[in-house]
Task: inverse folding
């Protein structure tokens, strides 16, 4: 991954120096090796903090809504899953395609620091990935972990490839995966209504309404969100409304249905580890089953399943688990 | 010790019916003027089109204590606004399936197409729906979705 990073810095430098772009959106070093954060680089000097490693899981596409409105062109590094969010945002007229220069970068699956810590490793000072081995160095010694066990949940089932790019930086081939991303959804579907309710109540009662899932979501790009309370005086603070409080997750899942690209950011950022992707994947699975396979963000124009219909759609009462009777 | 006598009351579910102004609402009217009955616990809310029903209306009805929610509109192809009910059909198919996934049984939600001329059908649909929901019993689920037992 170091070679990819060097190549990226080299390209960012060239683009900035030539004046082709006014800024580059990428990731910069954090306080620890495992917390790089999204950043905008406007000069070559700033690039000294640029990083691209196994902890760059953040999806940069949503930042473009703001950043690409500035004067001049913006270059951005997008991983395969991020390009879907990017296309979806272009489709929804949130980003002007011609204002952005997309550099598709390889992704071999990003690591989840929480999962690494879950193995009892604290004080992580560095990681090195060799094949399926993750060699972790920490203040208390070294350990080797099995990579599939410690990748981000969204990466475990990802088979996406870049769908938007002006150029690409891909130095290593990714291994083909044979996975069913709906496995967990199917497990839930097989339970009784009581069990499902118990499962969701257990999960959703952990929510602290930090709104992180909404704020990170590229599909949640409304200027004025139903969950904002302008009267509170605190930006992005939750409403004190019982209805909204109890049904936040259901409402949000419905709002992004047909537009959610399954980028997995919501589950990644949730501090309470709520498997939010299982909500969105249910909608995705049902849409696939009822109205034909549809992947949001695959195209940057056209209609979504919920803004179109056919006369022969199945009747509501006949629909069971996404397949018509 | 004080003796407590509680009369066991029969459970009557709270049913909310969203009815389109151009068809099923008139169908309910026709049922009435034809002296056909439907249970008094069906609370009808008149909407300009089945498509006007925002999914949050359904959620709100459940959250406010409905035991079942039914949505009635014009038969596909007969929408007063030409295509409204086709969108309704997709939306509700996904929403009701999703609610079922959260643990709100599928039988508690329903979409029926009832025209203005179908007074008898309106009454039959409502009777059948109320019977189904009565069998399922009380629904407290959406209000409790984020409250764990014992808390
Ligand atoms: S709901 Fe989650 S998975 Fe879907 S687009 Fe938003 S952040 Fe990504
Ligand atoms: S990120 Fe998690 S805890 Fe925060 S509001 Fe979303 S679901 Fe709740």
Result:
């Amino acid at each position: 991954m170091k070679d990819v990073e060097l190549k990226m810095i080299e390209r960012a430098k060239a683009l900035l120096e030539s004046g082709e772009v006014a800024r580059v959106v990428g990731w910069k070093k954090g306080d620890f090796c495992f917390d790089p954060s999204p950043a905008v680089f406007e000069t070559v000097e700033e690039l000294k903090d640029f990083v691209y490693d196994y902890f760059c899981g953040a999806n940069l596409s949503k930042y473009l809504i703001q950043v690409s409105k500035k004067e001049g062109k913006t270059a951005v590094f997008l991983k395969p899953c991020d390009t879907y969010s990017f296309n979806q945002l272009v489709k929804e007229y949130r980003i002007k395609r011609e204002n952005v220069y997309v550099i598709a970068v390889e992704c071999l699956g990003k690591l989840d620091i929480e999962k690494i810590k879950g193995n009892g490793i604290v004080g992580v000072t560095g990681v090195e990935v060799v094949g399926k081995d993750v060699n972790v160095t920490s203040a208390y010694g070294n350990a080797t972990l099995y990579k599939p066990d410690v990748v981000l949940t969204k990466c475990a089932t990802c088979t996406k490839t870049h769908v938007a790019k002006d150029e690409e930086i891909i130095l290593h081939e990714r291994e083909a995966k044979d996975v069913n991303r709906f496995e967990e959804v199917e497990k839930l579907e097989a339970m009784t209504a009581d069990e499902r309710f118990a499962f969701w109540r257990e999960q959703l009662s952990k929510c602290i309404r930090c709104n992180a899932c909404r704020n990170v979501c590229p599909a949640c790009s409304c200027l004025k969100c139903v969950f904002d309370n302008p009267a509170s005086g605190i930006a992005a603070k939750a409403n004190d409304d019982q209805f909204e409080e109890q049904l936040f997750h259901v409402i949000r899942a419905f709002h992004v249905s047909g537009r959610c690209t399954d980028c997995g950011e919501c589950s990644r950022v949730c501090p309470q580890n709520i498997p939010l992707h299982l909500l969105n994947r249910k909608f995705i699975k049902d849409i696939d089953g009822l109205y034909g396979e549809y992947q949001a963000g695959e195209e940057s124009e056209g209609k979504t399943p919920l803004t179109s219909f056919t006369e022969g759609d199945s009747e509501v009462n006949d629909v069971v688990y996404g397949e018509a009777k | 010790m004080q003796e407590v006598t509680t009369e066991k009351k029969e459970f009557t579910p709270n049913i909310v019916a969203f009815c389109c102004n151009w068809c099923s609402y008139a169908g309910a009217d026709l049922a009435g003027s034809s002296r056909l009955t439907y249970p008094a616990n069906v609370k009808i809310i008149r909407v300009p089109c089945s498509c006007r029903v925002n999914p949050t209306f359904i959620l709100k009805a459940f959250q406010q204590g409905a035991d079942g929610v039914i949505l009635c509109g014009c038969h596909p192809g007969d929408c007063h606004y030409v295509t409204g009910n086709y969108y309704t059909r997709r939306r509700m198919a996904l929403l009701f399936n999703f609610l079922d996934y959260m643990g709100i049984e599928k039988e508690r939600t329903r979409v029926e197409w009832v025209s203005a001329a179908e007074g008898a059908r309106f009454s039959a649909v409502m009777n059948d729906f109320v019977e189904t929901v009565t069998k399922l019993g009380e629904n407290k689920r959406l209000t409790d979705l984020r409250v764990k037992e014992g808390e």
Notes: The CA atoms of residues 79 and 142 of chain B lie 31 Å apart. The pocket of iron/sulfur cluster (ligand 2) is lined by residues A 207-213, 269-272, 274, 276 (CB under 6 Å).
